[in-house]
Amino acid sequence: MIFCAIPLIIVFSLCYAATRHEDLRKIFFHAFKICALLTFFLALTVFILGFIARG
Predict the structure, then answer these.
(1) How far is residue 45's CA from residue 19's CA, in Å, rounded to a whole number?
(2) Count of domains for the chain
(3) Are 17 and 30 within 8 A, CB to CB?
(4) Torsions phi, psi for 22 (to 5 deg)
(5) Which residue range is the domain that position 45 belongs to?
(6) How many CA atoms lie within 13 A of 13 on its CB side?
(7) Which of 17, 23, 41, 42 has its CA 20 to 30 A from that of 48?
(8) Is the full-model pTM beyond 0.70?
(9) pLDDT band at 12 (very low <50, low <70, confident <90, very high)
(10) CA Rg, the chain, in Å?
């Protein structure tokens, strides 16, 4: 199931960054930051829900 989330995170990050910047270098830098942030929060959510489910 996680393999479905990876392309969605990448596409969402690129689209969101492209609406904020015009320079290609800034788009990719901002997209990388957003991608890392989304991945962190999704992993944290999965960890918390897994911890609650085992409790």
Answers:
(1) 27
(2) 1
(3) yes
(4) -110, -30
(5) 2-54
(6) 19
(7) 17
(8) yes
(9) very high
(10) 14
